[in-house]
Records
---
Amino acid sequence: MRTTLNRWEPFRGAATLQEQVNRLFGNVLEHSGEESNLTSWAPAVDIYETEHELVVKADLPEVDPKELDIRVENNLLTIRGERKFEKRLNEENYLRVERAYGSFSRSFSLANTVNAEAINAGYQNGVLTLTIPKREEAKPKQIKVNVGTPAVAAAAAGAK
């Protein structure tokens, strides 16, 4: 008689970790009613720095720019808003709803080197762009090198 050992694999057939988690929790995480397809979301944001400013770009398609709340308090930049789910069709007409809807809030710490009082906000093609200028003292300064004169002598000549 020959004995065969088979290794036990509890999730055999589940191709991805996401499928495994979905099977494990089953109906526990399902919502009911009209909120079932409306999930919370956090819009994607890019932040980059140039020599003279900090730039924040946020993807906010179908968000009314007039309803955005942009604030700076204690060097914390906060962007709030909402993408509303418009029911132009009956709910049963939707075959799939993958885009997230609802309120959002994103906050980012700002360095002391920026001038939060002079933020410029623009909205074009579903992208919010915030331009935050740097303070003058934080901007890079180019120092002129005097060729042929020692630094001490140049400083003394400038003090006269």
Note: DSSP finds two helices and seven strands in the chain.
---
Amino acid sequence: MLKPRSLIAGLSPYRSPIISRDGLSLDLNESMAGCSQRVLARLRSLSASELSLYPQREIGERIVANFLGVAPEQLLLTNGMDEALSLLFTAYLGAIGNDGNELLFADPTFVMYPMLGEALGARMLRVQSGEDLALPVADMLAGISARTRLVAIANPNNPTGLKAARADLLMIAQSAPDAAVLIDEAYYEFCGETLVDALAQHPNLFVARTFSKAYGLAGLRLGVLIGAAQQIEYMRRISVPFNVNSVALACLEAALEDQAFVQEHVAQVKEGREGLQQLCGELGLRFWPSQTNFVLVRVGSTAKTFVESMQRRGIVVRDATANPGCDGCVRITVGTPSQMDGVLRAIRDVVAKML
């Protein structure tokens, strides 16, 4: 009987986290503003030949590299950030044996890190954040050893929305010169701080970005992995040549050109985020000051009831209690200004009925 590798057979399946598309989906940190009208216009202009020919990823990489101010050789476009993570983890984990095959990360964080590490047979070194859920820098530094092959840090973090200090991140990269250090900047546009400018000084540093959040292109699956040219070349050796589809590549330039759209969307998210956090404070709910397009809120032992009550009102939010350190928490994506008026009313109503 055909059997997969034992590591794969023992994994728990990772299924789509989509609960429902009925109502307002504030559970996956998607853009509720949609995408730029320039992107839609480009979509409508696609010709038959643009869809029938294989895509040229390199053209898109030159466009993004110019936008980011790096060389095209330092950058790889991927099928969403998920593929960028998969390539990076595959390149540096699983090849040296258990004694030198360690993945270091802090809980809570993005679920893909341990999932990919387990699939590659890496030894997990989980560092638990404290009650404040901030990045435990001292414990991360203490966890670095000769066994460390990859350090994964989401900044700002998901599901907490918290941002680590630049100096702390660079200290971690400097302290692990023989390990790949990933800084996952999926929510960069909402916080405005990046380590792309530090890549030249740290050849083991990688930065990942996505067009799914601020650009509203989650459905097109477009991610970016940036690092030292020599290291990115290793990613190219294991990446399939046509991994990014023609539709995504065709819309890429239009998306980057419309920075006015991105800036307006980010400004609206920040305003909505502030309103949501202010309401949580008024209601006596613990929340973590966010630098993303969502807010993590502790509603207590009634988290499941809160999620169900919001869903009955046509609003889907994320139950975050499964994340280490997030007992009783829910994660709420910030919608558009008109949507947030109804969201805040619903939260106030649900909390009043739960007390």
Note: The chain has 14 helices and twelve strands.
---
Amino acid sequence: MRTERAKFSVCIPAYNRARHLRALLDSIFCQDYRNFEVVICEDDSPERKQIAAIVADCASRYPNVIQYFENEQNLGYDGNIRNLVARAGGKFCFFMGNDDLMCPGALSHTARIIDRYPDIGFVLKSYAWFDSAPDEINQEVRYFNEERLFAAGNGAVMVCFRRSGVISGYIVDRDSAHAAATDRFDGTLYYQLHLTASVLARKNAVFTPQTLVLCRNGEPPDFGISSIEAGKFVPGRYTPEARLQMVEGALAIIRYHDQTTRRQLTSAVMHDYANYFYPYIKDQLSLNRSGFFHLYLRFAKMGFYRYPIFHFYCLAAYLLGEKGFDAVTRRVREHLGRSPQFGIKQLGVE
């Protein structure tokens, strides 16, 4: 039995996708670092029995490491993230999507970073997307070229807020995250953005350029099952309404934090989203002209009309299409390299 608190709770929100769970667990237990526990909260999915069987097999090989819980009812994405934080016993929560993979050395590297800097509340990751196999990397996401520390307060929130959208590799101080628990943002699919804004008000953030996780590309989303998500999201795809709900949810979170802390970050966060707006329309480019124009108008009415780069994304992406726009951004990467100071953000390839 573990007698001291683990450094990490590797937190997995489990809903379906049992076929990917064994590979995920293998990637965790292959780490060269052992001061961790694994916490899995299964969210009342149709594949509960398959998930439980895989977890039981893994637990027999790695006793006293996995904490497995089955939710009595479906909590939805945000509720299950909060549930995992509450169940976690480690000093830091290291979240993993249920179909993704942890890179070799990720835990040991993260532990060294946390130990190197004072009062860390959040680690901003680098990560990559892969297609059918982990060696088929189609995109790497690295925000800066070097390790960076961000002091607690507005600067840290501003850098890390939007960049917290991908749950795999989301690393946060457990106790600070638990203290911020609320159901106010359930149904946004962005509960972790609330945690980022809350934790970084008082604790520092650090960025690492080392890739920590590999995210699986092309898996259809399972959102829309819980009572809080029903009507907003449709399982299996991101509808225009879903994308509108997600962006509005992110803005509602930062507005709330502005109101409660007088930070006045909403305008800056909206500008940041506008500078990288392509991901929020990328999967909507197959809409007919009328449908896409309606989506564009609704985003504009949120306040994005103020930012010329937002209009550029909507026009250029729709004219070029997803493949065409992605090809342009790949050429920009090859020509300019990865420096975020020289033109990368103008084409939204961050």
Note: The longest strand covers residues 204-216.
---
Amino acid sequence: MTDNARNSQQPLADAPVRLTPRERQVLLWCAYGKSSWEIGRILECKESTVNFHVSNILRKFDVPTRVAAVIKAIRYGMLAEQ
């Protein structure tokens, strides 16, 4: 494995993004591939509320999609198993 490949798998030191606890929950369920409707059922809130949180997450990570946000969160070590 090259140094570049090894470095790309290491979490980045400090995440430049601060998420609310609810945004973290939504992002985690996005990582599991859940839809907004499913996340709303899980978190007992409206689908539109989930979409609001997703929009905030995308803006904070400066990415266009949920997948890109999940990838960045993984790289920042924000979705690491605890």
Note: The CA atoms of residues 61 and 69 lie 6 Å apart.
